[in-house]
């Protein structure tokens, strides 16, 4: 049985990935700060381990997860994220700190903590990034900067861990119909129509394709864009 650890499993994309992994027989380790929500999700996925920790507080992760991580980890999927929009001239330091903690420093620290288990299983790290990790636009400075950093983290990790058999994939979804996207539309002052955007199931399919690829190959970067309507 494969062991898979996910962050952001209570969100749109993360929950679908958790469902797919559970359906194929993986033992799930779901990490998040909302213990009640994770417990409810664990009831849907029998055998799931709940890890209550906050990726937005990376300096506390080691203590929060001490003795709780598996010895072997086949997949680490980073789905947790936060978004705040605004012009660079209007963003206060707290917003920058939050974006970098949740979207970059947290994933970096969780990856560091799980690397021994990933190496033991020749596992796979998947970082669900964003189209904003490839191009930054007006009003997206803090979020995009954190996602550019996440891309750099993936590239460095891939080069460092290739010899240990650890695969690393960055997935760059375009606008996806999730609660985060609804928040983005609210900040943009635009009407939100979920049907106009990528569905979480489609992004999950891309993630699973990378995870299920035979070991003779590795998907390094995967961009998922809205389709034709």
From TrEMBL:
Gene3D superfamilies: NAD(P)-binding Rossmann-like Domain. GO terms for molecular function: oxidoreductase activity. Residues 2-176 form the Ketoreductase domain. One of its GO terms (cellular component) is membrane. The keyword Oxidoreductase applies. Transmembrane segments: none annotated. InterPro entries: KR_dom, NAD(P)-bd_dom_sf, Sc_DH/Rdtase_CS, SDR_fam. The keyword rRNA-binding does not apply. Keywords: Oxidoreductase. Pfam families: adh_short. It comes from the Bacteria. NCBIfam families: PRK08219.1. Belongs to the short-chain dehydrogenases/reductases (SDR) family. PANTHER family: DEHYDROGENASE/REDUCTASE SDR FAMILY MEMBER 7B (PTHR44196), DEHYDROGENASE_REDUCTASE SDR FAMILY MEMBER 7B (PTHR44196:SF1). This is NADP-dependent 3-hydroxy acid dehydrogenase YdfG. It comes from Longispora fulva.
